Amino acid sequence: MSNSFDGLASPRRIGAVLTVVLGLIMAVLDGTITNVALPSISHSLNIADSASIWIINAYQLAIVMLLLPLSSLGERIGYRRIYLCGLVIFSLTSLMCAQAGSLTELTIARILQGVAAAALMSVSTALIRTIYPKRLLGQGMAINSLVVASSLAAGPSLAAAILSIANWPWLFAVNVPIGIIAAIIGYRFLPDNPIKGKQQFKFSALILNAVSFGALMFALMGYAQQFSLSWVLISLAIFIVVGSVFVRSQLHLDAPLLPLDLLKLPMFRWSVITSILAFSSQMLAMVALPFYFQRVLHLDQVQTGLLLTPWPIGTIIMAPLAGRWVNKIHGGLLGGIGMFIFASGLVISALLPLGVPLVFVGICMFACGIGFGFFQAPHNHTLISAAPTHRSGGASGMQSTSRLVGQTSGAALVALLFNLFAGHGTHAALISAGTFASFAIITSTYRIKFAKKSQQ
After folding, report:
1. Which domain holds residue 337?
2. Please, are residues 272 and 398 in contact by the beta-carbon 8 Å criterion?
3. pLDDT tens digit string along 136-191?
4. From CA 148, how far away is CA 282, in angstroms rounded?
5. Which of 108, 225, 362, 377 could cross-link 323 (Cys pair, CB 3.0–4.6 Å)?
6. What's the rounded Cα separation, in Å, for the pair 29 and 337?
7. Confidence of residue 454 (pLDDT cuts 50, 70, 90)
8. Could you give the number of structural domains in the chain?
9. Are residues 412 and 269 in the same domain?
């Protein structure tokens, strides 16, 4: 394909988008859908509840450690190849998870499944940029944002629905036919890269990247789940030492695995910062709200589930609209407005007096969904458009990495606040979420300054 290539025409575009959507749904859902099943898995495999946490951690660690290497590899051998390999491996490893008979088997299968999920997440946004013409890119980013946000929010509810009629292995088994169908469609419809990079892929850089991000995420997860403080400090020390070596090794490369070249672009740099702040805020709220509803408002699990439902509904409604507006209004401004609505919903919900009618709480949750849906699609469009076309893989990998770093940081902060503010931890977490969102308002709108300098 030439540099003049500008997206796919229908109906091929529809098939390509369907492939990306199905892959993303599986990859994102499997990061949250297992949470609800941990008690069942622990009982079935006869393991301690604390040990079952590794079923989640193994998946998340594998993703973060390989996002940037696989996005970089995608720039060289093609996003299409990476995504199709990810779909096939995800299907096979989902079957391995469903058939696992011990914690060791399930953890190994989850690590391999995380590798496949990293392949899917690392190049999904780059594929969207390739699939859609520039004039429709905002709509494409809206679909991508909608899928990620809805899958994150719907994971626990979907898990509960599956577990009500089947055993926990079916949480993984359902991925097998979906992955196979997506791979068949993708083989026919997914496009190749318009431009492929020619830089050599260095295995040493992959190792340094994996150790650096793995140590950081292990430290954050370990603190959130109350691992030994010595393990957390050792992980942080490894991150600082190995991370420093990794950064120095990437400084003078034209297309580094760690996209330092893209971080030199002000629009891209501030978009990454905004991403970390926004997703930290989102995870702070998503973890704290169920505790707030049940411990402070004294609601049961059914009422809690019902009150959280307006959040994904608001996102589903707003994300497509915001994606259409991004061609007329700068994404930084739209993102700032979205974060303002999101922060307002969080802070108001935290300040509502006891005994207030639950409809007002539901309205706040709906506002949170509206705000985040308003933010995410324009933000993703701004981030990916700030990178040159031939560096779409690096931009896509950095987008997913910043999201996961933000979410893991938010989860760790909830644990910290619950420990620091005994009895008032939920309020502290929600106020902190609103504070992070407020900083995201500033960093998002600040990007307007670089509108004329961003690379299209």
Report:
1. 259-448
2. yes
3. 887 788 787 778 777 876 776 777 778 888 888 998 999 999 999 999 999 999 98
4. 13
5. 377
6. 28
7. very low
8. 3
9. yes
